[in-house]
Each structure stands twice: as C-alpha cells, then as structure tokens.
From TrEMBL:
<dbReference type="InterPro" id="IPR001079">
    <property type="entry name" value="Galectin_CRD"/>
</dbReference>
<dbReference type="InterPro" id="IPR044156">
    <property type="entry name" value="Galectin-like"/>
</dbReference>
<dbReference type="GO" id="GO:0016936">
    <property type="term" value="F:galactoside binding"/>
</dbReference>
<dbReference type="Pfam" id="PF00337">
    <property type="entry name" value="Gal-bind_lectin"/>
</dbReference>
<keyword id="KW-0430">Lectin</keyword>
<dbReference type="GO" id="GO:0030246">
    <property type="term" value="F:carbohydrate binding"/>
</dbReference>
<feature type="region of interest" description="Disordered">
    <location>
        <begin position="161"/>
        <end position="194"/>
    </location>
</feature>
<protein>
    <recommendedName>
        <fullName>Galectin</fullName>
    </recommendedName>
</protein>
<feature type="domain" description="Galectin">
    <location>
        <begin position="1"/>
        <end position="112"/>
    </location>
</feature>
<dbReference type="InterPro" id="IPR013320">
    <property type="entry name" value="ConA-like_dom_sf"/>
</dbReference>
Length: 194
C-alpha cells in the first residue's frame, strides 16, 4: 500500500484553516518509519518528539491507538503496547475535538471517562457523513476513509461501551479487513485518567 503518513490530533476547536491549537499531534510517517509527537499553539509548532520503540505500523494492516489523558501528560499506546508519553503543552480542558488527517481509515472512535461528569461514549463512523460528528442511532457500523473532526464532548444519547483501559498486558488481534486500500485503518480510543 502507498500510504505515506497520517496524523491523529487532540484539537482545541473545529477549525483547520487556520488550524486551531493542537494539544497533541501524533503523526505516523511511514516513509521515515517514525511516530512524531508535537503540539501546535497559536500557529507555531513546538519541538518534535521522535524517540520511542520500534515503528509499530505496517501499511495496509489494522491498528489501535489509545490515548490516555492524565493531569499533565498523555500516554500513547499502539496495538496494546505503551509507545510514548507526551507532556502537555496546552491545558487539557481546552481540547474539544479529535481530528484525523492523511491516509487513514477509521473503524471506531471510543471516548471513555468523559468530562464534567459525563460518561464516555462509543461513536461508530459512517461512510459519506464527514460533517456529522456521530451517526444516527441504529445505523450500521462501517469504517470510512476520511480526515475529519469529531467532538470530544460525549452525551448525545448514544450507547456507551465498556472500555478496556490503558494497556498493562499486550493485546493481540488487529486483523486487516479485505479491500481496505490504500492506507492504514484503526481504532482510536482517547481516554481520561480516573
């Protein structure tokens, strides 16, 4: 597959041009075999963080990214393994959107913990509906290939899903799905620390 890069962002608003601040930017650069972490504040990128274990992505294969928001940093796990931590450079209470850019197909987004006493939620993605943050209840679960914006504030009456938490044991089984070309696809699961 020809995927070159994709990014997952915890964003402080819905705007992409000019882009609102990014509290966390996780950028998988397949051609460089590196996962870069950074933030964008007032239109300026901070210093890139590139250290970490072996590059965890294989083009065309499924994956799962978990992001655990703690009081002053984010923990990032990929495919059930802790990958990196990123010290917060922007107040976490400003984060209001999850965005995805690049060559990625999202199969599910799951928010756990919520905010302001609200429960987390599960938001299956729908093909052809990039402007709608969550699909109508009762619609079938199908992945779609699109960059997009997804509000991080749950509470729209959709069912919650019992989460598995941040990994302490490896989890296996991120199968590829036939016909998912040209890039990567995955399951994104931002979480709030208890």
């Amino acid at each position: 597959p020809s995927a070159q890069r994709f990014a997952v962002n915890l964003q402080c608003g819905p705007n992409t041009n000019p882009r609102d601040d990014l509290a966390l930017h996780v950028n998988a650069r397949i051609h460089e075999r590196v996962v870069v972490r950074n933030s964008l504040v007032s239109g300026q990128w901070g210093p890139e963080e590139r250290h970490g274990p072996t590059f965890p992505f294989v083009p065309g294969q499924g994956f799962e990214i978990l992001i655990l928001a703690e009081s002053n940093n984010y923990k990032i796990a990929i495919n059930g393994q802790h990958f990196a931590e990123f010290r917060s450079r922007t107040p976490m209470e400003r984060v209001s959107y999850l965005s995805a850019d690049g060559e990625i197909m999202i199969s599910m987004i799951n928010f756990e913990g919520g905010s302001h006493g609200m429960p987390g939620m599960h938001a299956p993605m729908m093909p052809g509906m990039p402007q709608q943050p969550y699909p109508a209840p009762g619609m079938p679960h199908q992945p779609y290939s699109t960059p997009g914006m997804y509000p991080t504030q749950p509470g729209m009456g959709y069912p919650t899903q019992q989460g598995m938490g941040y990994p302490t044991q490896p989890r296996m089984g991120y199968p590829t799905q036939p016909g998912m070309h040209p890039a990567n696809y995955g399951h994104l699961s931002p979480k709030s620390a208890p």
